[in-house]
């Protein structure tokens, strides 16, 4: 990969929560327009990696560097990372009682080129179109954020934000979405539109391979016990499907020695 | 099968309800400047203390009684004897005490407790301390544990007492703080020097034996920077058919990074008006832990207060109140977050039964200086029948943006589903209910020294035992 | 023209330490107020009922209450003995009741619906509001049994005056009724805008009350409500206290009938030197009665707020459940927030819960919002925006929406208008 094509570069990243180290010396390089998959067994630290790249204050970065779009963002605040073009879809989006979805969407669009410049009416029309694209009932836009939403509805709202904000790179934390057919199809649809419309870059976090069936994957990364233990092309997906993660666990154990 | 309700028996207080005769010397009942002067004279106090008493009496006379708490109409101050001197001077071995006094404390198990797990004991009988003793190891560490009046007569401590006395609880605080300021007598003084940690607790026990009398002891504890102390306070009285009054005051000064745990099991008899005031202040990094059980008294007003004055100081409060027949217990706590990064955690339980009334009352105040402070309050009330009463009145006054204040409270009865579950496993209904109430009280009992936890569990068991159906 | 100061306003039933300054409040009225009585009522003519309908409904309920009492067992509790005027205060077997507990016991013995009726702001304020509205000038809404009706009452600020509406809603069995009240100040000036509302919700009736304050900071709002619920009645109250320099809101509900229920959903905003003062009281008297009080607010500038919420589980309300929750966002450093969620209980077979969360945006919510590009300030600002936009979405009334839009402009809060 040519250097100028690199969008995200994570180098030697270590992170801890309350003294407990969760990520050990992790490297990850993602080129613009590519689709990567981050796989690994439960508790490997996959979601953590997404959160740390996004700057979750829950975790302390104890080593390494995160470069995005040529800028060192390791110490950048989370909201600035978002404005720089990073996106993280949440496995379990929070509920914020009292805040209508429409108010929330308007607020997060403020100050962004394109959507931020739209007039009220134009903006509402745009949001409505995106909702229809995701088969989302526009009535949800008047409801309180996340309150009483089903898993599938929450997922739809995450995808709607992805398409609204059009980030340069999106981490999609889909660790559990494979369990829910409804959620699975929403995510697939969201990814497809995002890739097509924005030539988007994706890092899909999952341990379930069904979600990847209709996606052209460039690279696969395997995270086990907080360490990157393998990397390869899309053929790894079929291998993992068949043989699971046991094959990588030894390498992780050896690295931990 | 007809559903039967567990009738809960009145607490068996025979453990505390006995008297071996009356003390010899009493002042006239009632409250006049002459009586106050007489108390002061008997104690041969410094002039400033006499002035403090007279000023307090003036405040007392001009202050209204509270209009929000349990009625104290049954308390006729003209009939309360404010000073009762026991027929002995203070001793440092139990055997030197007169038989009636010695037998009283023996029955309460105090000498035995001293032998087995305490570093020092003070025992007050009516208005005066009759016993004070501390292990040599503790005195060698420089720890002072004595009667507060004794310390007041010691030129080494008099200036410090003068500096601190009734500064946390000024006589203007409320009517009974003023009364305390006027007629206080007895109580303990504790001084723990810098970086000194005492491994075993000190205990003061207050016994009010005289009928129709008041007890007004003053406890002053100073824990210097980096020091650590566990202090236990016990109290009881035999039951009379006339009102007795307890209006003590406890002032606790916790230094930088110092730690003080203050445990109380209050088990006054049911003719007692307990209008006690307790207050602490913590310097930077200091911590105060209150463990408070209120079981006795006809009327109780008790809200230990923690002033978190230093950065990163902390407070935990664990309390239980059990109000039975004829009792109206208004208890709770007060917290002031007055410095950055302070934290307070309050957990209380209250139980009402047999027509008793229990009120949880609290105040949490965060001043503008309390940035990044946190306070959580959790209070649970259990109603054991439908002719009792339980109120929860928690006030919060928050004037600082960067704080996290959480408050949760629930009220209800023992769930039939829980009883059914336990019965389906072969446990009798009575046993099941006792088990559930003990479980309810567990967060408090596990904070108590073992001997006290056993005592508390016994009190609850006695309450729960007896007629079912 | 009446008193200059209204005392003992929004008093909690069971008071606590006076030095906290939460027990009640005194309302200083502007000097030289005239009474305007300029109220705009929008309702179908057949909905207008007769004066006295409220008292007649209460009297009819009283007959059934008395019959039920006569059929029940006598009450022999020690608490009631304490109320006996001949009781010896030195009797140690009788609990020494506080003034409030004494009053509660007397009220239980009297069992009188009309006597126990209260509006949340308290006697003096309620009487003053009634006087300001004009004697006998109450608008009475009385939908027919089993029928649906709706009405909107708009009360706009009149410079130098107290403009007050007195409203009675008497919903007979099975009726549903929606009432929207708007307290607004489209024109400049100062004065008092108020409403005193009495609601009688009959058997299985369903009454929805929405009250929105969008006044400018030169105005004072007084919003006083008292509700009586018969069996199975369900009343929802939406309070949107967004504007006014000072607003005082009192709401008292008597859940007298079995299975009756009240839900209170409150949102408030305060900025600058604003004062928001609330007193909510719900008395559970009937069996299996329910209440949910849910309040959310954001305090900005140097505003001051006190919210008293009392759930009173009166003996006999077997199976009742009362829940109360407040979430307060403190946006600026100099705000003062007072919260006092009280549960009073003399019944065992009940569930009472209350909770309060006070401070800044919760950590998980804040991280989520930051992930979407909002700074800390923007995240806090979102809550103010959301409070306004939610009101405009929820209340389909052009006066209200215009008022909310004007308020947003005055406070400088980002706001997108709702399509009409």
UniProtKB/TrEMBL annotation, chain A:
Pfam families assigned to the protein according to its UniProt record, in alphabetical order: ABC_tran
Keywords attached to this entry: ATP-binding, Nucleotide-binding
Gene source species: Senegalimassilia anaerobia
Presence of keyword ATP-binding: yes
Residue ranges of domain ABC transporter in the record: 8-250
Family listed: Belongs to the ABC transporter superfamily. Ycf16 family.
PROSITE patterns assigned to the protein according to its UniProt record, in alphabetical order: ABC_TRANSPORTER_1 (PS00211), ABC_TRANSPORTER_2 (PS50893)
Highest taxon, organism lineage: Bacteria
An example Gene Ontology molecular-function term: ATP binding
Alphabetized InterPro entries for the sequence: AAA+_ATPase (IPR003593), ABC_transporter-like_ATP-bd (IPR003439), ABC_transporter-like_CS (IPR017871), FeS-cluster_ATPase_SufC (IPR010230), P-loop_NTPase (IPR027417)
Name assigned to this protein: Fe-S cluster assembly ATPase SufC
